[in-house]
Specification:
- The protein has helices spanning about 1-20, 70-80, 140-170, and strands at about 40, 45-50, 80, 90-100, 105-115, 120-135.
- The protein is an alpha/beta fold and about 200 residues long.
- It starts with a helix and ends in a 31-residue tail after the last helix.
- A hairpin with a 5-residue loop joins strand 5 (about 105-115) and strand 6.
- The longest helix is centred in the last third of the chain and has 30 residues, at about 140-170.
- The chain has a four-stranded mixed β-sheet. Strands 1-3 form a two-stranded parallel ribbon.
- It has a domain at about 50-175.
């Protein structure tokens, strides 16, 4: 009676299957942004401020291989270039957390870029934010939750870069400088010669 035997075993098999942690894929290699479009700004200096946001309850982002605030500062350092003679572009992290919640984990990121004139007045700014989440079954192992945190951070960073570039092109157009390799007085494209990256419609 194979069918009867399977029916009797099914209640025992289901809890065992339900208790298995899901396989979570995390992109290989270190976090990096050099393959994306460099954003050249008509300022004399790019200033990347240290993150000052306090961790929220349930935030375990600082335990990741690259904490989210550090990853966003790295984004600014690898994508923003000063090619002008006056003023500053000041980049700051406004939100950086990878949080546990009842459904799994969620990553929330936010940043701001201010253009400051030679006299100290703000001449323009943009803000960008992104969010990614992953649902997990209850009772997963800490290592599984950690991998989920790494995965949602990568997803949120991808979304943040798209939003950040879109906002820069829309609201800081007057300070963006487009250059070509070998242009006089301006740096050639760095990190693989990437010139443009297509953006989705607004």
């Amino acid at each position: 009676m194979p069918t009867r035997r399977l029916a009797l075993l099914l209640p025992l098999l289901l809890p065992a299957c339900a208790g298995r942690d899901p396989e979570i894929a995390v992109p290989g290699g270190p976090i990096g942004f050099g393959f994306l479009l460099p954003l050249r700004l008509n300022v004399a200096e790019v200033v990347v401020q240290p993150a000052e946001a306090l961790p929220a309850p349930g935030d375990f982002g600082t335990t990741l291989a690259v904490p989210p605030a550090q990853a966003m500062r790295q984004m600014a350092e690898e994508r923003l270039f000063a090619v002008g003679s006056t003023g500053q572009a000041v980049f700051g992290v406004t939100q950086a957390a990878v949080l546990r919640d009842n459904a799994g984990v969620v990553c929330v990121l936010g940043c701001r870029l201010d253009i400051v004139g030679a006299e100290g007045g703000r001449q323009g700014f943009i803000e960008a934010s992104a969010r990614a989440n992953m649902t997990l079954p209850s009772g997963v192992a800490p290592a599984t939750r950690q991998r989920a945190g790494e995965a949602v951070l990568r997803q949120a960073l991808d979304r943040l870069n798209v939003e950040f570039e879109f906002q820069a092109k829309r609201n800081l157009r007057a300070w963006l400088v487009e250059t070509t390799p070998g242009a006089s007085g301006l740096p050639a494209p760095a990190r693989g010669g990437v010139e443009r990256e297509a953006l989705p419609p607004a």
